[in-house]
Amino acid sequence: MTDNTTFLALPEDIHIRILIELDVYSVVHCAMTCKELCEIVRGSITLEYRIQLYLDGLVDVGASAAGTQNILGDLLSYRQAWFAQEWPGYIEKIVRSSQYRSHIKFKFGGGALFITDGRHLEIVTLPTSSTDDGCVIQHELSTGGVSDFCIDSAQDVIAILENTVQMEDLSNLEGYFRDICIHIRTISTNLDHPLASKGKLWFVDECYDLREITISNPKLEIWDDILMLWTCHYIPRLLIWDWKTGNLLEDFTFDVAQSSLKPRYRHDFGLLGSSDFAFLTRPTGCGSIELYRLGKYSNDGPTTLLATLNFPPLSRNSALKSLDLDVDSTPVRQTPHGSFIVNNEEGIYVFRVCYEFQTKGTRVQYFSMTMYVHQRAFMKYCTYERDVEDLSLDVPWDR
């Protein structure tokens, strides 16, 4: 008998005991090798449950008292509801209308919808398995306005970038300098966060027009103890804090030649974790995604470029018009009485790309697409063991 037939000759319960000890990737590979192993895997509720969790990017947390068969049934029912959009019921929440509709900003995370018009913060929590109904929490904001905000509901923290500034005219310099504040507060009580040694993080920004009293298109993101602010106002800039200690870890201004970040034009920014982040660049060429490791986590010292992922080359009559990146930077944490949660290592990043095409004459056409990219497409470059001489990877678009 061959090795394969010898293994298949073992009792089925032995097969299952062996397969349970494997990771889900190996279980799927075993099931694909032959019909007999595929039937064994399909016949085991435990193995089937693990595979179905993997397909949805979930992990079991073992908090439910229900049996595996019941939890598997719930998982398949939830998936069918998502696919068919057939929900057993819904609850309607009335959200406060605002006269400042053009200034409304919202975030979704941790089972709640966060809405602000710059003067109020409204938190609409959703029903869960342990609560029959959600609730609406309203806070009055004393910040004078909100340029952007980010949340981590697991740590009960919200960071608010204030859009009112204190302007100082320094006549001996070319521009104007303004003090800008980021408030670190609790979501539940709207008070200074107890884990933050400083309730307000101040930084100085330079502008060249007194009419520009706010930062245009800021992007504020948080992950664990890391808080990052990306601005593209006059001069692109990235600021990185440890919000718990209040220390400013990095301040990159991209027109400075000695910056450890490559001095290219950057179009958007995304925080990929507590140690890694990405830039979308849109130079005169085809564009690229740059992956960086934060200095405090890098063995190389300063913030380091790990890899450059290049976009496809373009024809002479086309150009990359815009790039956008959406990353859910809120790490998922276990909730009470839950059976499974989203795996932090199975995230999906959303890219929106717009190309411009020059047709006959002066006519211009635009082509836009949305791409959903798995997190591991980036993480394999972030965890790549590099030689000392090979400081970064340059990855062609078709690799």
Automatic annotation (TrEMBL):
PROSITE patterns: FBOX. InterPro entries: F-box-like_dom_sf (IPR036047), F-box_dom (IPR001810). It comes from the Eukaryota. Residues 4-52 form the F-box domain. This is F-box domain-containing protein.
